[in-house]
TrEMBL record:
A cellular component annotation (GO) from this entry: membrane
Native source species: Rotaria sordida
Gene3D superfamilies associated with the record: 1.10.287.1260
Name the UniProt record assigns to this protein: Uncharacterized protein
Top-level division of the source organism's lineage: Eukaryota
Database matches in PANTHER family: SMALL-CONDUCTANCE MECHANOSENSITIVE CHANNEL
Length: 104
């Protein structure tokens, strides 16, 4: 694995993230710009993580302990931040659905 391929992957993720962000905003699926940016960044981080695990597996590194550790850390953080995550997801649903109508 050399720097050129990592640079190409980085450019690919940035370009696909920007395309996804524009698609979400122009299709009116998500009207809030910050939420669209959050979703595209999350997708980019997920692609980087999958690429890293795949690359390590290709190089012969045993990825099972790494994935188990990531799972345990994710479960622990998820349990600790349950209420915060619930409020955050509720806020996302409110932004998407916009149930409140402004009356002037």
């Amino acid at each position: 694995m050399n720097y050129r391929s990592l640079s190409m992957l980085s450019r690919f993720v940035k370009i696909s993230s920007n395309i996804g962000n524009r698609f979400l905003l122009r299709s009116y699926i998500i009207e809030d710009e910050d939420l669209a940016r959050l979703l595209s960044k999350t997708a980019g981080v997920t692609i980087y993580a999958m690429f890293t695990v795949t690359t390590l597996g290709t190089l012969g590194v045993d990825t099972k302990p790494l994935l188990a550790g990531i799972g345990i850390i994710g479960f622990t953080i998820g349990s600790a931040l349950k209420e915060v995550a619930t409020n955050f997801i509720s806020e996302i649903f409110l932004i998407i659905n916009k149930p409140f109508i402004r009356r002037y």
